[in-house]
Design brief:
homodimer, 364 residues, alpha/beta, Quinone Oxidoreductase, Chain A, domain 1, Rossmann fold, 2 domains, 7-stranded mixed beta sheet, 15 strands, 23% strand
């Protein structure tokens, strides 16, 4: 370690307490430490950008899940991309770009015996930009790829519906389903996202779940009509006349129920997330239309991306090919301001404010 | 048709109106008709016994399902066994025993061109008794067989849980899973059913969902303890320490949620029915623990037995073999009183009063 590195300061964001509902400032603690010496076989990475994901909300809760919760006082878990600034390991050279579980901090120092657990891996910027490595070539892209292909199993000509269509996972799910020959209907919030999904990404249609009742026509505009207006139900009726063969669910709640009511025979429902439920202070809203699985001989199945780690290289190669030939677009919503901006940026996910994969830029 | 047949009277039960909640006397109409001449190629069957099934409640509702609803004024749909009393069809001889959609009536007369649709088929009483042909060798047995084997896909050594364990489908699911080398835990209501399931059918354990809190131990017996006592949660903790690999659900509601909370990695949840929800006057209770499917990479899938019609003979042969060699027992709860007893008998299913496959005896 050179003398210049030991003078570096590491700003960090730690979990101070477990949130009830949406995270607030009180749940976070800002700390400053000298940069830690990585030690024999270790690596020191300077964080360039962090991935902000709905799953982070789950990691803040106590209790059993697919991954251990972040402990109180620990640096908040986050995937990110960075650059190697010091290395005592032949697998990583200074100035190489890497991705891995860097955490919400400016420097990630990992000991040699912790390298495997950190998932640190070199990335090739010829395949995609830094932020694309947090999006289509990163965890969201992997989640989309294996969730759609392995669990959803779409067949050419089938109808695929994806919620959170303008989000990180949704955008890749929809474009990949189109490439595989499916008819694709997105669900997203607001006309800007819906327009982008259809015009830029080439979805066949997109349902705006926030859409107001149609103008004109006395009954629809009446208070009673408004009370019963459900843009998702109406949109599914219009755009999925033969039912839904694959539903990739990122949101849960009422939207999941609306799609369940329109499943085609033998449909597959991929449970990837339930962002509408993550900040609930009461019980999760169970899908009251789940018996549609019986009527339609359909199945609902969960996916955890880590199970497919051995096949990431194959998926990255395929997706990078689509990015290169222009069939796959990737939109990132980059928030600046460094790690101090993390708490506010995270909440953009839950308000639906982000447009594309949410990324926190930590350094240039 | 002989002169003696034309003098026969056919007592019938028809759907008079659609029930709200549990069916009442007002929903039924009793009619009496002369026995109808089956016509060219047709068959006349005398009903001996009818199958009473939870699914009947669904057939009484309006709206799209896996099968058309029974129309108002129509004879109530029911599967049954009977004996051929007149035949103009070489495939059926007088005095042969048959099974099929006879309806809640004393005589079933079917025209030649309606025979295929009626599903009428000869049964071999050497393979099982008349009531066994409505149970382990009938629709409940077929539902158990294909739901468990095709959807549940149990592996030897895995833990299989089945609700409605003393019911028609549940008893066969559990015994079949035992034969396939699984550890089997039933869920049933009351000590008599649970004892029978364990002692007679050889389940490894049975959870009594009606069990009171354990005696002794101050806190458990306190009002507060009682309020939080959940015999299903406690039973699953005790009997499924490594989680549930296959859950065959006949009941839905809170029991489904309790099992979801204890799924093993990669579990399969077979959605066969939801008897706890069939008489709801409000929305179905959705499984609020459905995100356990994500955490555990599990799947939930519906089954409709009719899809497997081509493979019934194979399943019947296998199950009849187990009946013959004593590994498969079959219990029927036979209600007497003819078709007039149908409305009261049906409600035994929803009160949980029946013990074993519920059968209505119509004639000796």
């Amino acid at each position: 370690m050179t003398a210049s590195l030991t003078s570096l300061v590491n700003h960090q964001v730690r979990l101070a307490s477990r949130p009830v509902g949406r995270p607030t400032a009180e749940n976070w603690q800002f700390t400053t430490e000298p940069v830690a010496e990585p030690g024999a076989g270790g690596v020191l990475v300077k964080t360039l950008a962090l991935s902000l994901d709905p799953a982070m909300r789950g990691w803040m809760n106590e209790g059993k899940s697919y991954i251990a919760p972040v402990g109180i006082g620990e640096v908040m878990r986050a995937g990110g991309v960075g650059v190697v600034v010091a290395s005592h390991n032949p697998a990583f050279a200074v100035a190489e770009h890497v991705t891995g579980g860097l955490g919400v901090q400016e420097y990630f120092s990992v000991a040699g015996d912790q390298l495997a657990r950190s998932g640190l891996a070199r990335i090739d910027l010829r395949l995609g930009t830094l932020t694309q490595w947090l999006n289509v070539l990163g965890m969201p892209g992997m989640t989309a790829y294996f969730g759609l292909m392995d669990v959803g199993q779409p067949q050419p000509g089938q109808t695929v519906v994806v919620s959170g269509a303008a989000g990180a996972v949704g955008q890749t799910v929809g474009q990949l389903a189109r490439i595989k020959g499916c008819r694709v209907v997105g669900i997203a919030g607001g006309p800007a996202k819906c327009d982008w999904v259809v015009r830029e990404l080439g979805f066949d249609a997109c349902i705006d779940y926030k859409a107001p009742p149609p103008q004109g026509g006395g009954s629809a505009a009446s208070p009673q009509g408004s009370a019963h207006w459900d843009p998702v139900k109406a949109g599914l009726r219009e755009h999925c006349p033969h039912g839904v063969d694959v539903y990739f669910d990122n949101v849960g709640g009422d939207i999941l129920d609306a799609v369940l009511a329109r499943l085609a025979r033998g449909a597959r429902v991929v449970i990837c997330g339930a962002i509408s439920q993550y900040n609930n202070t009461t019980a999760v809203q169970g899908p009251k239309n789940y018996l549609s699985l019986l009527v339609n001989r359909a199945r609902m199945q969960g996916i955890v991306v880590f199970d497919y780690a051995e096949r990431y290289p194959q998926a990255i190669a395929e997706l990078a090919g689509y990015v290169k030939d222009g069939r796959m677009k990737s939109r990132e919503d980059v928030v600046r301001g460094g790690v101090a901006a993390f708490p506010g940026a995270l909440n953009k996910l839950f308000s639906g404010e982000n447009f594309g994969k949410l990324v926190l830029q930590v350094a240039d």
